[in-house]
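Reopening: structure tokens for the D-glutamic acid complex, inputs below.
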Amino acid sequence: MDNRPIGFFDSGLGGLTCIPYLMKALPNERIVYFGDTARTPYGSKAIGTIRNFAFEITDFLVSENVKMIVIACNTISATCLSELRERCPELPILGIISPAARKAAVSCANGSRVGIIGTKVTIMSRAYRSKILKFLKSVAEAGQQIFEAPCPILVPLIEEGITRGDIMDLSIRHYLDGFVMKNRLDTLVLGCTHYPLIKENISQLYPGLSIIDPSAEIISSIEDSLSKHESLADGADGADGGHVFYASDLSENFVNMIDRIFEGSGFTVAFKNFDLECAI
Ligand code: DGL
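Re-run output (same inputs, fresh job):
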């Protein structure tokens, strides 16, 4: 048993999409979340820049005495997971790509045509494709059922709170109309933790698509890892029991979204602005 918090981080508010799933599955767990809202989006930045930002945030979460770190960002998971694990060998660090890739591999094995959308960096890394193919090692031709498309404008719109209406729908259609049609997709992986916030729009625009949401898929890996390390919380942590949400720029949108997640839950939630001083 270990009542220390789990550290989550993302380039902004996208990683918050994991939190409702976590609270439902593991209500005793406490969260320290870091959203790098001042420097978002990461998905079009150089890998070295993303790595420096990720190191800085990981060091901060370690200083907050977390028992595990969840990289609630596909872009960071795609580019720096192994370096972050090398930097903190004593701490379980989970990337968000593997659990969703496992589910996508099952879909491929059942004959599905799977599309992956994400940031430029995630798609260029081909992290989803290689993980899916690793899970499907006996099926060499499965690569022909996997299709990838970067959707760079979606994250800035979501960070601005523009998740509904014509601007968002047109942006989604700009990227997905041709991609879904031409490749005859039946399954879509939301390969960016911001995209679950527009899942409804995507489902309405493409009702036949079955959607894989990495923010939901990661939860069973968190539970497995905590069980394996005998560090599930028992909720008996008294005054220490609240969740803490840090942002490098505490925007109204960030605070409102967290308020919506915790509304009526009875949990204590604290917000903190945190000034990062990265060398870059
Ligand atoms: N939520 C991040 C991801 O999953 C967004 C990346 C960005 O900041 O561009 O990739």
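Strands lie at 6-10, 31-35, 68-71, 93-95, 114-118, 146-150, 187-190, 210-212, 243-247, 269-273. The mean pLDDT is 93. Marking as resolved unless the reporter disagrees.
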